[in-house]
Design brief:
The protein is mainly alpha-helical. 75% of the residues lie in helices and 0% in strands.
Length: 281
C-alpha cells in the first residue's frame, strides 16, 4: 500500500504541475474532488492519476476471496473445479471482474496439486503423456487474442462468446496455468529463471509496474518536442525508448529498496503481534 500511495501521489503531482496552486492542491488532497484518497487506497476503482491501477483494484478485492478458496481447497480440491465451472456459468453477470476470479482460483489449484506435479509418479499420468500437445494447445489459447486481431474470428464467434460469457482472459488464464505447471516440472527452465539478473528484475518488477506509467504519460505529452531533438524519428525512438527503460529501472530500484522492503518488514512486525483469525489444519 505504501508503494501504491507513493505512485498515485507522484502521478497526481505530475498531472497537477500546470495548475500547481493552493486552491487546486486543496481540491485534490483535502476536499478529495478527484478521488485521490480512494485511488490511493485502491477503493472502488477510482482511477484518475494512475490508470494501470485497475489491476491492483482487482487484486485487492480478490485477495479477500483467496482465504475462502484455500479453505475450500483444503476441504476437497474437487470443489475448486466446481468453483471454476461456476465462474464460467455465471458469465457476464459479474461483468469484467468474474474472469479474474478464474486466474486466482487456478493459482489455488496449482498449490493444491503442487506435490503431485513434482512427484515421480506424475510421469505416469495422461497429462504427462500428452504434455507436448497440451503445451501447444496452451500456446494457441494464449495467442488467440493476437490471432483475432490479425485474422478476426467474425461477429458470430464474438456473439456466441459474449452470450456464454467466454472471454480471451479465460483462455490466457488456462494457458498460464499450463505454463506454470511446465515451469514447476522443468529444472532447466528453473535454472534459467534463477539467473541473478532475472532475480533482480523479479525483485523490482512491482516497482517497474508502478513507475513506468509516470514516464509513459510524459512521453506521450512531449513526444513531438522530443523527436525534434533528433535528426530522424528512428533515432529518436531508439534513444527515448532506451532512456525510458533505464529510468524506469532506476525508479523501480529506488521504490523497491526505499519503500517496498522497509514497509514489508514493518508489516511483518505488525502481523507477528496479531493472533490468527482462522487456522487451516
Amino acid at each position: 500500500m505504501a508503494c501504491i500511495f507513493f505512485t498515485v501521489l507522484i502521478n497526481a503531482i505530475n498531472w497537477s504541475r500546470a495548475d500547481m496552486n493552493l486552491h487546486h492542491l486543496k481540491e485534490v488532497f483535502i476536499f478529495d474532488k478527484y478521488y485521490f484518497w480512494e485511488e490511493a487506497a485502491l477503493l472502488r476503482g477510482h482511477l484518475q492519476y494512475y490508470i494501470p491501477g485497475w489491476t491492483l483494484v482487482i487484486e485487492m478485492a480478490l485477495s479477500f476471496f483467496i482465504p475462502f478458496g484455500i479453505i475450500l481447497a483444503k476441504k476437497d480440491k474437487k470443489i475448486i473445479l466446481w468453483l471454476l465451472l461456476s465462474y464460467i456459468l455465471i458469465g457476464n453477470n459479474l461483468r469484467d471482474l468474474y474472469v479474474f476470479h478464474i486466474h486466482f482460483t487456478l493459482g489455488i489449484l496449482i498449490s493444491c496439486i503442487y506435490n503431485e506435479v513434482i512427484s515421480v509418479s506424475f510421469k505416469e499420468t495422461k497429462w504427462f503423456k500428452y504434455r507436448y500437445s497440451i503445451f501447444i494447445a496452451a500456446l494457441i489459447l494464449f495467442t488467440l487474442r493476437q490471432i483475432d486481431n490479425i485474422i478476426p474470428f467474425g461477429e458470430n464467434y464474438h456473439y456466441i462468446a459474449k452470450y456464454i460469457g467466454i472471454d480471451f482472459f479465460i483462455y490466457s488464464a488456462i494457458a498460464s496455468f499450463v505454463f506454470i505447471i511446465v515451469l514447476i516440472r522443468s529444472k532447466k527452465v528453473k535454472n534459467i529463471l534463477e539467473n541473478n539478473i532475472l532475480l533482480f528484475f523479479g525483485k523490482i518488477s512491482y516497482g517497474i509496474y508502478l513507475m513506468h506509467w509516470l514516464l509513459v504519460t510524459d512521453i506521450f505529452i512531449y513526444w513531438d518536442d522530443l523527436t525534434k531533438l533528433f535528426p530522424n524519428k528512428d533515432l529518436a525512438y531508439l534513444v527515448i525508448f532506451t532512456t525510458y527503460i533505464l529510468v524506469s529501472i532506476l525508479l523501480a530500484t529506488f521504490v523497491h529498496y526505499a519503500i517496498e522492503l522497509p514497509f514489508i518488514k514493518l508489516g511483518k512486525r505488525i502481523i507477528s503481534k496479531l493472533k490468527p483469525s482462522y487456522i487451516i489444519n
